[in-house]
Amino acid sequence: MQKSIDEIRKDFPILNQKVYGKPLVYLDNGATSQKPLLVINAEKEIYETINSNIHRGVHFLSGEMTNAYENARTTIQKFINAKFSEEIIFTKGATDSINLVAFSFGEQFVNEGDEIIVTEMEHHANIVPWQMLCQRKKAILKVLPISDEGELIISKLDNLITSKTRLLAATHTSNVLGTINPVKEIIEKAHKQNVPVLIDGSQAILHSKIDVIDLNADFYVFSGHKMYAPTGIGILYGKKELLEKIPPYQGGGDMVDNVSFEKTTYAELPFKFEAGTSNFVGAVALAKASEYIESIGFEFIKKQETELLNYATEKMQTVKGLKIYGTSKKKCSIISFLVENIHAYDMGLMLDKMGIAVRTGSHCAQPLMKRFGIEGTIRASFSFYNTKDEIDSLIQGIERIRKMFND
Amino acid sequence: MQKSIDEIRKDFPILNQKVYGKPLVYLDNGATSQKPLLVINAEKEIYETINSNIHRGVHFLSGEMTNAYENARTTIQKFINAKFSEEIIFTKGATDSINLVAFSFGEQFVNEGDEIIVTEMEHHANIVPWQMLCQRKKAILKVLPISDEGELIISKLDNLITSKTRLLAATHTSNVLGTINPVKEIIEKAHKQNVPVLIDGSQAILHSKIDVIDLNADFYVFSGHKMYAPTGIGILYGKKELLEKIPPYQGGGDMVDNVSFEKTTYAELPFKFEAGTSNFVGAVALAKASEYIESIGFEFIKKQETELLNYATEKMQTVKGLKIYGTSKKKCSIISFLVENIHAYDMGLMLDKMGIAVRTGSHCAQPLMKRFGIEGTIRASFSFYNTKDEIDSLIQGIERIRKMFND
Amino acid sequence: MTINEIQNEIIEEFSIFDDWMDKYEYIIEFAKGLPAIDVNKKTPQNLINGCQSKVWLDAELIDGKLSFTADSDAIITKGVVALLVRIFNEQPATEILNTDLYFIAKIGLSQNLSPTRANGLLSMIKRIKSYALAFNSLEK
Amino acid sequence: MTINEIQNEIIEEFSIFDDWMDKYEYIIEFAKGLPAIDVNKKTPQNLINGCQSKVWLDAELIDGKLSFTADSDAIITKGVVALLVRIFNEQPATEILNTDLYFIAKIGLSQNLSPTRANGLLSMIKRIKSYALAFNSLEK
Ligand SMILES: Cc1ncc(COP(=O)(O)O)c(C=O)c1O
Ligand SMILES: Cc1ncc(COP(=O)(O)O)c(C=O)c1O
After folding, report:
1. Domain check: are B161 and B267 in the same one?
2. Greatest mean pLDDT range, B381-390, C13-22, D46-55
3. Which of A56, A63, A257 sits opposite D114 (nearest CB)?
4. Most exposed among A54, B5, B11, B30, judged by the fewest C-beta atoms under 10 Å?
5. Which domain holds residue D87?
6. Mean of the pLDDT values across residues A4-16?
7. What are the DSSP calls for B89-157, one per residue?
8. Which of the residues A160, A364, A366, A392 is marked catalytic?
9. Per-residue model confidence (pLDDT) at position C115
């Protein structure tokens, strides 16, 4: 049976607290999500029962921990519908995953004069690694622009892609605008010209079912901490045939087959890309988080979050001088906005004192800010555990501050 | 007051269990250590109270979490006596730290024909990243050999270092032989010829007080999970003036100052090297682990572990056909051994069934195995929470297996 | 008034508020009273890095004492820098260098302005002290 | 005997042990009874990767049936491969390909040999099946 919101909120102990004597209203989910007890306790339980280093051990605990870790891989494989479990690489997070691809794919396939395409709405994590690669290889970074509504101008893609294009990196969902990009269509277009595509799923993975086979993504990355799992763990999905073609990223234990000072050979997938002791406890907790998400159900999540998004958008439009950035028809539950004459930072600081946690600033997307000619926005991002009451608090807070400034 | 071993063991719930109906004897501490409740509960508590993304947030939880994270940095700074807190970089683990240096130092300072020196007793984590660097830059990897006792032949260092040597990477303590290397002397020798030194402290950090200023190490790396902290977190210490000179490793959020498609500038230390959402919960737990260690006290740890090492060494010497690999006078509580006519793997599997967890195989040190002309060893590694009774169980187990094979 | 006398004054002024919004109203009042910085002084050199808001801070030496002007695009930041200007304006450089800014904790700002990584408040204080240091060594 | 008959036989033999060390003694017995592999067949090609111990496995087709020989430097591994040889020796290739090796779980080996990442037991079974597959397609 479907849990009620009240029941769901009980799964997240952190939500039931006061800050500055006011009930906490946590609307900074885009930065990081809170964790259900199921996940928190999974880590604790591992450390109290089976914690042990994995893979090479011959003893009982090591076996149990290895099984738990490899089962976590299979769970994530199913969660995103990957074809093979070895297409799931455990990393530190989305940033780590993108850097891995930028390095390893870059070493193999990017040379002087080649081109990489990113979009104007990317998070720095999906810009800077490509810039660094381009600098190292003397390649060129090209940018797919966006419209005033905050949508990718897909029609420009055909001209942007040339015979020199080696990879296209695009976000599935904007962490600032909330825009859900038509990544399936983008991938199809890129593939027509033989360009592989990396999708940054950091803000998508928690809102709806991801099916990497259906999307036909070549690489798909996300962080655990944004999908109700702990910090320090993330995923790189890559198509097997591509992962096999590119060299390893980091060197160390577990990623080698044979090591000698003369010649070292590397292990098979997925181990080739998992150098050193993996965050195996984090990996198991990540799998638990995905199970928690599925127990709530994406249908329910989508319904709840859409309701919150629509409700908040409607209410915000009644606030004088409030402008929403990102007005695509396809949005996840993220709203960026500014109120006339009020600096985002002032708004954020004051909302905080009312117990309302939002994020302010450039949201690691400075080029996007530049596109809109602003320094930053206030961002409220909702999870299925948020309520309409909380949105009412937010709106009241905004109104109060607006009056303080504009009267 | 000093805790008794019984009291200490109560801090580690995992130790008090049976496997195959036998009391668990956990002697695989070199692979990963168990975690005290203080550390386990610290993570749980964070997720239930202040979890929130750090640094850029303007709200209460973000502030609390940022403070906890930055205080963790200061705690680790003091733990290893670094001069500046920004010399402490949080990484995924020792392997991640070494790869960071191999890349960033390599980009800045290593060119075709240059030389990197490692030792014959290194873990793969301190070999493969350098091999990969050498391959990329057409540089040359040179190796400092060891004696039959398992000690570095320091006298060969002077000849090994040339005007082409760019860096020396050596382990503080061997994860196989237990040898504690005279790293201070090595660093001094290297510095005389202007060669910076990276020390792999993975197996040293948990056994005695590390003072990076006294050692005068240029880089010092270790993993949290081997020092009673969770998986997925580690440290790179680097001298400020060196860290400032080398370019960033990964690109993404938090490590930038200003991002535009035309030109990106990077943040100051330590952030320059911490791209993406850091494992901030792991970092706080790591600091807690260091506090736990200090509450037990290195004096007590050293005394206890030396006693266990000496006791086990003595007892093992009474076992017919048992050979210990690594007979240096300066050893930490790690013993590698083989028993005549018995494959390490057989021994490990059988000890396991008696509840005794040891590690078998090459211990991610294949070149070292080659040096001794063996395929692998059995390794028993003791923590201060182990007891003489447990060593008795180990010896009895070895004897029983020896008889099974040799009668 | 000495630096500490001004600090104590500020602490007392803030002591009447138990609500944060009232404190902010008060800080905003300060912001409005801040002597405007010369437009020509809003240079990149005078811009303080590491805040989510922009802060410009300039100093001149007048009769052996430092005179500060400042501005910010965010009103709370401007109010905070106004507090600092009120405290440090016309104080001898050596005094500025040796000051312990206990008022920050007392009025609750340390907790409330520290969240941003490159702490805006800290950067402002650093900048003020570096001016003091520079003028101090000039004087010798 | 069919493959499953042999599996059942093994399960029954092991059922009398409730102590692991006794099981190992028994496995070691098997190891000693394993038909020795020809020294010339201990080639890198016949070496199975991913075990902590070395395993060589060779197969020949005799009268339309597969005949296996094997060896290992570790005695327990050798005993395990001996169990597999006992089961699969002289069985038709199609049977080998379609076998579900339930005896592994029943005698407790799945749990006890799986810890190593590149599971030795799994690799051995894979190798045996790939021989069967190869011979099967040869026959057609
Ligand atoms: C000496 C030494 N160096 C490096 C490492 C690698 O540490 P990690 O796997 O935690 O990155 C280890 C761990 O086995 C080690 O013992
Ligand atoms: C769209 C997007 N991509 C990438 C990232 C980077 O994720 P992480 O910091 O967890 O590596 C984020 C997180 O802010 C994001 O929102």
Report:
1. yes
2. B381-390
3. A63
4. B5
5. 3-139
6. 97
7. EEESSHHHHHHHHHHHHHHHH--TT-EEEEETT--GGGTHHHHHHHHHHT-EEEEE-B-TTS-B-GGGH
8. A364
9. 42
Identify whether the C-beta of residue A32 lies closer than 8 Å to the C-beta of residue B334. no
Query: pLDDT (tens digit, 9 = 90+) per residue, B198-255?
Result: 999 999 999 999 999 999 999 999 999 999 999 999 999 999 999 999 999 999 998 9
Maximum Cα–Cα distance across chain B? 76
What integer pLDDT is reported at residue A148 of this predicted model?
98
State the CATH number of the domain containing residue D84. 3.90.1010.10
Tell me how crowded residue D133 is: count the other CB atoms within 10 A of its CB: 14
On the question of pLDDT at D111 being above 70, the answer is no
Q: State chain D's mean pLDDT as an integer.
A: 87
Q: Are A26 and A9 in contact (CB under 8 A)?
A: no
Per-position b or e across B75-86, b if 16+ CB within 10 A of its CB: bbbebbebeebb
B213 shares a domain with B124: yes
User: Measured between CA atoms, how close is D68 to chain B, in angstroms?
Assistant: 23
Chain D residues with CB-CB distance to B375 below 8 A: 54, 73
* Best residue of B53, B58, B65 to probe chain C, by most C CBs closer than 10 Å: B58
Per-residue pLDDT reduced to its tens digit, B53-100: 998 788 999 999 999 999 999 999 999 999 999 999 999 999 999 999
Taking residues C80-99, what's their average pLDDT? 92
Q: What is the Cα–Cα distance from D92 to D103, expressed in whole angstroms?
A: 19
Cβ atoms A282, A230 nearer than 8 A: yes
Q: What is the pLDDT of residue B239?
A: 98
In a domain, A34, yes or no: no
pLDDT in the model for residue C103: 92
Interface contact flag, C53 A353, Cβ < 8 Å: no
Contact (Cβ atoms closer than 8 angstroms) between residue D130 and residue D37: no
**Average pLDDT over chain A, rounded to whole?**
97
How confident is residue C119, by pLDDT bands cut at 50, 70 and 90?
Answer: low
- Residues of D with catalytic annotation? 51
Q: Which two tokens stand for residue B293?
A: 């260690």
**Are the C-beta atoms of B229 and B289 separated by less than 8 Å?**
yes
Best probe of the B interface among C53, C117, C122, C123, by most B CBs < 10 A, is: C117
> Strand pairing partners for B53?
none
Which residues are CB-contacts of B162 (< 8 A; sequence separation ≥ 6)? B115
Least Cα distance to D31 among D65, D60, D73 occurs for D73
Q: Are C26 and C17 in contact (CB under 8 A)?
A: yes
Q: Which residues of A touch B17 (CB under 8 A)?
A: 49
A405 lies in a domain?
no
Question: What's the number of domains chain B is made of?
Answer: 2
| Chain B residue nearest residue C115, CA to CA | B63
Is residue A364 annotated as part of the catalytic site, yes or no? Answer: yes
**pLDDT at position A11 over 60:** yes
What ipTM describes this predicted complex? Answer: 0.95
Q: For residue B35, tell me if it sits in a domain.
A: no
Q: How many A from CA of C125 to the centre of ligand 2?
A: 32
Quote the minimal CA–CA distance from A352 to chain C in Å.
9
Domain ranges, residue A366 = 5-27+297-398
Instruction: Give the integer Cα–Cα distance in Å for A150 and A371.
Output: 10
- 3-state SS string for C46-94: HEECCCCCCEEEEEEEECCEEEEEEEECCHHHHHHHHHHHHHHCCCCHH
Contact B276 A250 (CB under 8 A): no
CB proximity under 8 Å: A 320-379 to B: 345, 348-349, 351-352, 355-361, 364, 366-367, 370
pLDDT at B300: 97
A125 lines ligand 2 (CB under 6 A): yes
Q: What is the mean pLDDT of residues C39-48?
A: 92
Q: Cβ separation of D114 and A257 shorter than 8 Å?
A: no
**CATH at B370:** 3.90.1150.10
Domains in chain D: how many in total? 1
- Annotated catalytic sites of B, by residue? 364
